[in-house]
Amino acid sequence: FIYKFLFLFIGAVVKSQTGWNVKYYRTEKCTIKGSAVFIWCSYDHPVMLNGVYITVEKRFWFIRTEGEPVDLKEDPEYKDRVTYSCSPKICSLRISGVRESDSAVYKFMFKTNYKTGHLQVLLVSTSVQQEDSDVQLKCFIRCDPDGLNKYVWFINGEESRSRIQSETSQTFLYRSWNSSTDRISCSLRDSKTDQSPEVYAPQTPTVSLDPPTEILEGSSVTLTCSSDANPAANYTWFKKTNSNVKMISGGPQFVFSSIHSTDSGDYFCEVENQLGLKQSYLKLEVKCEFFLNYYYLTLSNK
């Protein structure tokens, strides 16, 4: 009986000064055809970069490097033969039914919420006035942390040359107000077509009731508020009684587990981020349910 031994090669250690790295426990492995093989690695990333907490969104193993790396689980040659076992900072690959064609260099990749090398608009500071705010924005790209490149700013897709605060135009002063609908983005001056995601104040929120039909006393009722905004907005529910306003919830939903007639009234949802604020109102009417009991009196003559 002849054993066929296969050699699998694992990518070299990848390390950077900013805390991103992948480390493989062995760079070469020999196994028998038809058997199962395990490959291990550890990885690390910064906890926070530029005010953004880093979280891992996807992790996978691959061998093909032409174009975008392909997850081995999605590769027809490996489908149903590979499994991953991952925990924070460690991930292993198991290949079952090893074939001669499996001899290759295996590499590990993890993707996070931090957009490496992509432009983004950062909100640096906000100065609140009576009816508006001055917001200092910064155009950031990881490969230019010191702002040595030259930048361009756009408002609603149109280039804006006013309120630029530095020679390279990396910082920009924007005056926002509660009714603002402007969308702001930036790009490198040499590549205006590659713009950052837009930042903007909340859109007018949509408010709803569940159930949307007649509301009876004692039932469960949910108030829901939703809005589009970037950066993400904070939600607050208020109840207005005559001239008094009371905050009742600090989130997009507020639930009455057993509503009472005294809960009837005017409510509004306030949505706010650093670029603006919007409100929407709704009227809540709770109906009482009456039960009539009939008593019959029988009279008899004695």
TrEMBL record:
Signal peptide: 1-16
Keywords per UniProt: Signal
Origin: domain of life: Eukaryota
InterPro entries: Ig-like_dom, Ig-like_dom_sf, Ig-like_fold, Ig_sub, Ig_sub2
Domain Ig-like: 202-285
UniProt KW Signal keyword: yes
Gene3D superfamilies to which the protein is assigned, alphabetical: Immunoglobulins
PANTHER family linked to this entry: B-CELL RECEPTOR CD22-RELATED (PTHR46013:SF4), VASCULAR CELL ADHESION MOLECULE 1 (PTHR46013)
Name of this protein: Ig-like domain-containing protein
Organism: Oryzias melastigma
